[in-house]
């Protein structure tokens, strides 16, 4: 090995270049190579494995197929939310109206998905109902004046077409609509004002972990009651999905053989079994088993006997009663009403949903081959989600909208990160929401199957919340105390308030309702305590997990690529965001400065010429030794 002083690009001596005798090549310095690897680390991991990146346009048939796949992936959450709410809305014995609610949430989710992908954060991310709204909603509907009358719990006394019954459930829905619409205005303001960036300075993993965990933990009663209607059937629903997941390797091997023989059928390589959700497949398998056992009369036919709710005909002939076409429209349940108690409770759910969505944006960008989202894209994304919640309240879904983490995971499985595919998925949701029969099919799912689905979904949500602690030093007694105390208080305080609400009465009805809704929402109690303790008890940035949490936000990216991905569509960015004063708006893309525009092509040419020369050098017979 001969050590020689080789001059670098600037003419300076660089002893890090070492050329071996007899070799006809020159090596880059270790420092330059390491810097190049560090700069393109994420793009090398993700973009190299992507078939279509965020700005690519796949063939039309592939867009439709993958759009349907994303719809199927989100199906569990979209169906579960209306079915959980139906009990508190006094609709447990009215499956036809449950089908209308499911169709409405499909339709609104399609609208919100199109708005988010086209004008919001502009990433391939699906919008749908949020479990973060469930806890405050159930707390609001548990107030004495909104509890369901006893006669609505008896199927023999319920006449779904009577004006009295219709007014009972629609009055509760209108109250919920008003609370969601007012709370969504808060989210719109936080997003479009750029306030979300300020709030994220004080919200770290120790705040997010108990907040998301307490979204699902208080709902164990609902999941247990539904699954307990027949534990055998509910266990089959998630065990079937587990078996499908375990045997997916065998399916992938078969898929590989098919693709090797028919490589033209590209869609087979992206429609993998895993991406279609093992839970959903387990649900379909169990549904078929229940149908077979119902036809053979293995389940009891008496509604008072345990196991009757596992029959596929236990909810009546709802499929034949449902119309083929039903167009959801704003105000279909009447004019929304407003109460302070509901507004403050839903705002707690809005804050939790916003924090979760910001994390989904960064994960989606990483998996779709896009640069980390800039501040203006995050602001638009949160603002558009607020608009989505406003539309959901106006249409009467009984819930808001948020970004779906399940579909973010599907991007990594299919290796297709194109946002056009999600646009196709939004169109699929719109079309499905118009077909009334589709909502009726999902409303007829036997109760134990719903219970098994909820057990899996709530368990996953709890695990996702706890997984945020990976950024935190859990050997610190400070962090152990904050997380443990927040979780336990988020369960204990709502339980005590439900049993002793009279102790907190102030004599002012509206104030009493606000206090009760907030203190019976475990997500608010635990999240608020974690927020206060994490920002008051001394701790280093590394100990709190803030350094690792914000690591992805500090990556330097090509500004041209950022504008290409996150710029406004249809020429809006070039026509309306060119003025100097518009650049100060929190939602407007920042244009490249003149110096950067001039320097960028020059540096790009230098880099390309250097690569070309280094690639051509070994090909020609020239001795490069000094």
UniProtKB/TrEMBL annotation:
Its main location: membrane. One of its GO terms (molecular function) is transmembrane transporter activity. It is a multi-pass membrane protein. InterPro entries: NCS2. Residues 594-626 are annotated as: Disordered. Keywords: Membrane, Transmembrane, Transmembrane helix. It comes from the Eukaryota. The chain crosses the membrane at residues 59-85, 97-119, 178-196, 232-250, 333-351, 420-443, 449-468, 480-497, 517-537. Coiled coil: none annotated. Residues 596-605, 613-626 have a biased composition (Basic and acidic residues). Belongs to the nucleobase:cation symporter-2 (NCS2) (TC 2.A.40) family. This is AN1-type zinc finger protein 5-like. It comes from Platysternon megacephalum.
